[in-house]
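Morning!

This is the sequence you dropped in the shared folder:
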Amino acid sequence: MLPLAFKCENKRILVLGAGDVAAQKIRVLRDAGAVIEVITKDVLVAIPEGVTVQNRAYQEGDLTGYHLVISAIGVPEINDLIVREARAAGIWLNVVDDPGRSDFYFTAVHREGDVMISVSSQGSAPAVAQVVREVVVAALPKGLALVAKEIRAERDALHEAGETSEGRAWKPRILELLDQYSEDLSTTGAP
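The structure's back. Tokens below.
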């Protein structure tokens, strides 16, 4: 496995099915800025505004034009067809609850501004990844989003001045900012 963070903004992503698990994936994809379309025979949960829904069964050819596809149908025979079509077209596919036929897995994610923590069990035990994420989040220092915003501004200033940000010792500056923001947040009572 290779953990990556994909830029999903304005990418067309298809979700097949509209149950609880599909809704969870839709929320994650929407938060990442994806253009989400759903094909489902039965809408079992509320679909967020801005998501296009085609109320019908999957048909061969439905995957054409999508960057990623999530199959949350749960019908093995239909998933067989979806897997075959995705493989033939070179489309990245996640078959919910079937890691062996998936090209990628959703991770347990925590976001704080531009900082993202992602934990994976490679699809084998999502509940374990979620618990590990909670433990890691509890141990994170306060002010990470503020620190990331400040470091980004400092990097941008270097680039605007024609300098590179590569090879710089950022760790001391990051630790300094973490101390500063942690102290500031403790005195103001902010989370």
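Headline: The radius of gyration is 20 Å.

More detail when I'm at my desk.
O.
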